[in-house]
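Reviewer 2 asked us to include a model.

Predict the structure of this chain.
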Amino acid sequence: MQYCVHMPRKRKYNIIDLFAGAGGLSEGFVQAGFNPIAHVEMDKDACDTLRTRACYHYLVANGHTEVYYAYLKGEISRETLYKSVPSHIIDSVINVEISDDTIKSTFIQIRKLAGHKHIDFIIGGPPCQAYSLLGRHHKTMEDDPRTRLYLQYGKFLQEFMPYGFVFENVPGLLSAKKGEHFRNLREYFDSLGYHVQYKMLDASDYGVLQVRKRLIIVGWQKQHDMGYPDIPTKLTSAVVNDILCDLPELRAGDVQSIASYRTPTNSYLSESGIRNTEEPFVTQNITRPLNENDAAIYAFAIKMWNNNRIRLKYSDLPIELKTHRNEESFLDRFKVVDGMGCSHTLVAHLAKDGHYFIHPTLEYCRSISVREAARLQSFPDNFFFEGSRSAKFKQIGNAVPPLMAKNIAESMLRLISTSKTQIPKN
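Predicted model (structure tokens):
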């Protein structure tokens, strides 16, 4: 497997990240060489995660990574970490819900952060639950304001007039309300002066050990239209067990805030950038506790999958392990992560329970840990998630895999460098 190598460039393009979450999308763009001016996010824990990561990137660039790792080791407080960088680094994360009431003040904050710099690109994807199959069970799509957040996204395009944008969402956006929402979105962005193209991408095609299909929309100002970037696939022979094997042993309910790796690294972990070589330890290897009955179900599911490649259906459980009578819906609520292939799609529901993400090792008999989930999403081991255990799982489940985002970002840079259409220099 080969990964793109970041090459020196004369110019760094400036971005703002909307509906940023924990910053998986912008992490990939930063790794590719883009310069983040601001992140806008409504969730407080995710904003703290973004601030901590912004500190990391600043400290790396200025040769002071020891400060960041002192924080990971618990030697300094988060307040001390934040005070170790210029105030604009912390201020670049704007904790606000994007709405008609807040958008003007958010514009002012971003312009202050940007100074004389032009915003070259906007990236991000509004919350996508409204377009997912699960989201449709809770309220009708017409009543859900999340289906109209692309209008707020468009207001940022109008305000900052970036040369282009990347808009990420779930596949359900294409089919929602028989395609009406997506048609409205394209027509709206077209009216703002942007030509929109889109493709359905799967993270597993770009080195991520997870099947995760996402709609990636790319828009360009019509006078700078460069088309959809060619994003070469990065297929790998690695499997999920390759990203689990070096982590410390962990039982249900264990909390390893910091621990040494169990084995040396391997080619996948090194080439993907997941396991860095800066420090010989890993953080946030934390898992949830498990009651006796669920542990028995997990063991049953693991044996069925590992021995026979059969997914457990709730109706197949022995009567003594069943806790309710519903045997008609959600029969696959207990699901083992495929250690010999790619994981199924991580979702934010991981914050509620781990039944759908059971570790493939029978001896562990537990759901995946925070760090294991982060690795399945291709987050580097030095990426630190703030908040409670549930908050961490939620942030990870909602994120865009950074490795996939990096491939998108690098393909856009190649497109810019080879296109006859030129983007003005700042």
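Residues 19 and 385 are 17 Å apart (CA to CA). Confidence is low (pLDDT under 50) at residues 1-9, 130-141. We have added this to the supplementary material.
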